[in-house]
Amino acid sequence: MIAASLHRGVEDLLRQTADAVILPRFRSLAAGEIVEKSPGEVVTVADREAEALLSRGLLALLPGSTVVGEEATAADDGLRAAISGSERAWLVDPLDGTANFVAGSPHFAVMVALLARGRTVAAWMLQPATGLLAAAEAGAGATIDGQRVRVSEAAPAGPATGAVFTRFLPPDVRAGVDAGRHRLGPILPGLRCAGWEYPAIVAGRQDFALFWRSEPWDHAPGALFLAEAGGRVGRPDGSAYVPGDGRAGLLVARSAAIWDEVAAALSLA
Length: 269
What we know:
alpha+beta; seven-stranded mixed β-sheet; 9 helices; 14 strands; metal ion binding; Fructose-1,6-bisphosphatase/inositol monophosphatase family enzyme; inositol monophosphate 1-phosphatase activity; metal-binding
């Protein structure tokens, strides 16, 4: 079990970080505060300052642990080794949905996951624009703003509806998706922020999401949250999701039945 004091400490740290360096820059970024770190990918001063605050705070909350942050890893990819190799490692996405943040959309989040020997044991996702906090602990369930949540067990009224993120799909997978999408309900454009996508599935606003690029800081928090709420998370071939395994592709769904429906329709499994 994770100590209640640690849960409170992480929640307080997320909110303090959002209030100090993220929300003050929302819709107020100067041109020099946005940098393209790779083709089509931007980073802002808010990302970097938030990661620095979170890293210091998390190490203080759990001395002897390791922090693997998205921006630090962009500068030194060797940090990934700590995801599976550390006794206790924090995964940090200081500003999930940076493109949304830059565009003035409220769909951005601050996310943290705690791993023990490569296994996700706790997760926190804060939506600064709304104040909503989704959290989970392995074996102890999922919560939103401190209230236990579970996915609806009701079957969809029709074919499953969800988001398919096609940008990074390999050609063979894209062909299967294009050929099978008519077997499903409306394909949504997606919120382009995992910190909003996973809670939307738990809340029943959509049934599934298919991602291809599955960086651990993007998906370890939401994957644990959805699994603890009763949903299903898995690689396209049906195997378990492990944050540090370096594999691509992730299908997440409100139920095992919906997962199977989508995997079959899109020729994933």
